[in-house]
Amino acid sequence: RALPRGATIARRIEDGDAERTRLLIGARTLSSVPLEREIAEMRMSGVAVRIALSTEAHAIHDRGYVQHVLERSWLEKPWVFVAGAAPMIAGMRAAALALGASAVRVVSNV
Predict the structure, then answer these.
(1) CA-to-CA distance for 50 and 30, rounded, in angstroms?
(2) Which of 30, 29, 47 is nearest to 38 (CA)?
(3) Mean pLDDT per 10-residue run, the chain (110 residues)?
(4) In angstroms, rounded to a whole number, what is the distance separating the alpha carbons of residues 96 and 92?
């Protein structure tokens, strides 16, 4: 199944930028991570996908809130696309700006 055409990650893959794309997904537990098939397709296309679990320890996934994982793995001058609950978005925006992101490069669904 193909990724939705308008999706940001799908567009990056189509444009040949998969290898330069990193996706950080935050969830409370591993069982609540959405889009399992799509994540596998993104990884096969070359996108670096990381999963941050806020309430569960796991051997291969990050532990903590997404904004804290972002702080530990910051890249210079990134685009940050954030979707989710308003408090998480506010935390991500604050972390990205504190790390030096340009406000116009932090895009959210709210």
Answers:
(1) 12
(2) 47
(3) 62 89 86 86 91 84 83 76 84 87 81
(4) 6
